[in-house]
Design goal:
DNA-binding, Rossmann fold, 12 strands, 434 Repressor (Amino-terminal Domain), homodimer, six-stranded mixed sheet, alpha/beta
Chain lengths: 337, 337
DNA sequence: ATCTTGTTTGACAACGCTGTCATCATAGCG
DNA sequence: CGCTATGATGACAGCGTTGTCAAACAAGAT
């Protein structure tokens, strides 16, 4: 591959025998260009390997071609899946994907957001929990008319893009999975209660219990905080309060790992004596030993779709559909086969 | 906070009573501006909250103000530390930090790099292992005259920035740490041999052994690949081939986790019956249970410094210092107290 | 005082693109 | 067949900055 000369819109226009404005129209998918000319321009551009200069576009159009993901999540695997999904969609459309961790101030992300918006221009934003549940943030974004998408929001918004799974159904289905395997003594390890999704997962858990013939007294709820540590501790509490539990549903994979490690350490065999299921199907679930049965949500696809829809919204200047539900899947592995 | 009007260079010039060119000079740290005017302009700019428009700068100067980190590493914790370090340095200087995963093609990253450079402009690049060891990549970068920094390179380059720890010394010192705790039967779990740093860590391990009174026959080398799984397997092999080993040095924390989990599962007490030390001091080391003694390298600072030096290189158009060695630290935790 | 030399400053044309608005084609209609 | 409405196209002026080059200034040297 050789270092190719950088062509400008003018070169393309000249080669195609049209004005630069027409070339511009083609590259912006503007209407009112004859199909024949569109093809011609596209052909010339492809031959020459032309790429519009982003800075010039930004400067002239006052758009930034940047989509920012605002988050406050220590789980780098989760973040990088979102980033990958965004980038796939962005590079298809000539946009930039950016990720920014917001530091809360008195429990609100508003300040951090304003700080950011002061420095950088964005054409669209994606929010993931817990930022997606901060109304003051959403209000600021709406005030500025910036298109936005919420990933797994606690409360869905009508005037923004929402991508989500049905957390409750998911929680119910993986609990059913445990129940079907004959477990009669169950426990749920919760995540942070400020995380709306965690509450929904738990609601699903209790729905499944209620629909079964398992008496509520055989079921325990342990408070966790999504960390591996809290999984360890949950198991310790369990051995004291309910040593007969044989099936555990942890609200995420990290806590499942913690629980299993603690169990192994205590000499319990997994899954023979204790079955554990997780949630998220993160790399932990695959690389732990035993590998962990987990409920997978297609984070990557969710991020990809939100980005696509966001760009669509930016271009057409109106929100078409707002609710996008994704299917989940139970990935069966060693910890609960 | 109110939405402040966006000021341009012209506004600043007018308020300060100078030409826009002088303002430009001030913001680019160009020479030949009287200190008094410099202060005046800076003062006005601060008062008005002026920020240069990046797109315009890019367009006019043909610089991109982007520094890209090219990698091929699944360890998202490592990546995000690098990213944080870069971002700290970049935002201090008005640059953008970007991370890009390169997919190898026939073992080389050259193609992926060229693909990227065709689409995007970069002012400087940072390479981390294993990309930092791909000579064809470095050659392309040099050919284009792009300033570059290598993080933990296998072979240090004279005409680029190198930031690193002394992997061999580090390997030796953490092995010494094991030996000092009285272990007489040791094992080393290697990473991928293609990862130069891993080989150095091992060399340090053997140096420490040689300097001690431990006979070589009491020492075992197990092949791993940096994954948790390979840590599990290494422990299994160990129980067969050398059940008397009491001290293990894993070339990274993930393998240390795997080893410990496998040990716990087999009923071995950690650290009472088996001590394990890791390398990198990743979040794994902190969140595992028992927590893991590990050798910490200041990745964040290393990324920060390389970015600073890179920007310095870009601005002054010449490389001043090229070698930057960082100190390491043994973080003592439960797995080998 | 005058001439050099180097330092400081500014006027103005790019940079590559999009927005605006005017003009030119084309088709449909009476 | 001319008229109107609408679609297709282009000319040109910005967008906010930096590069270039010329002009003004300051400080020594004579």
């Amino acid at each position: 591959m050789t270092i190719s000369k950088k062509y400008t819109i003018e070169d393309i226009a000249e080669h195609a025998g049209v004005s630069i404005k027409t070339v511009s129209r083609v590259f912006n998918n503007s209407p009112n260009v004859r199909q024949q000319k569109r093809d011609l321009v596209l052909g010339v551009a492809r031959d020459l390997g032309y790429r519009p200069n982003i800075s010039a576009r930004q400067l002239a159009s006052k758009r930034s071609f940047v989509i920012s993901h605002f988050h406050d999540n220590p789980n780098t695997d989760y973040l990088s899946e979102i980033y990958d999904g965004m980038r796939r969609a962005c590079s298809e459309q000539g946009y930039y994907a950016v990720a920014e961790k917001l530091e809360p101030k008195k429990g609100s992300y508003r300040h951090a957001l304003l700080e950011y918006l002061l420095r950088y221009e964005v054409d669209g934003v994606i929010l993931s929990p817990p930022v997606s549940d901060d109304n003051s943030v959403i209000r600021e974004i709406k005030k500025r008319g910036i298109p936005y998408a919420l990933i797994s929001p606690g409360k869905k918004k009508k005037d923004g893009i929402n991508v989500f799974i049905n957390e409750r159904d998911a929680g119910r289905s993986i609990t059913d999975f445990l129940i079907e395997r004959g477990h009669k003594q169950l426990a749920f390890i919760s995540g942070l209660d400020s995380h709306a999704a965690s509450l929904e997962r738990e609601a699903g858990f209790w729905e499944a219990i209620a629909a079964s013939d398992i008496p509520k007294k055989n079921v325990l709820r342990l408070a966790g905080d999504f960390s591996m540590q809290s999984g360890f501790r949950a198991f310790e509490k369990l051995t004291k309060k309910a040593p007969n539990v044989t099936g555990i549903f942890a609200a995420n994979d990290e806590m499942a790992v913690g629980t299993i490690v603690a169990a192994l350490r205590a000499g319990k065999k997994v899954p023979e004596e204790l079955s554990v299921v997780g949630f998220d199907d993160s790399p932990f679930a695959r690389s732990m030993w035993p590998t962990i049965t987990s409920l997978a949500q297609p984070i990557d696809d969710m991020a990809h779709l939100s980005t696509q829809k966001l760009i669509d919204w930016i271009h057409s200047d109106r929100l078409k559909e707002s609710q996008f539900e994704f299917a989940t899947q139970i990935i069966v592995r060693d910890s609960c086969p």
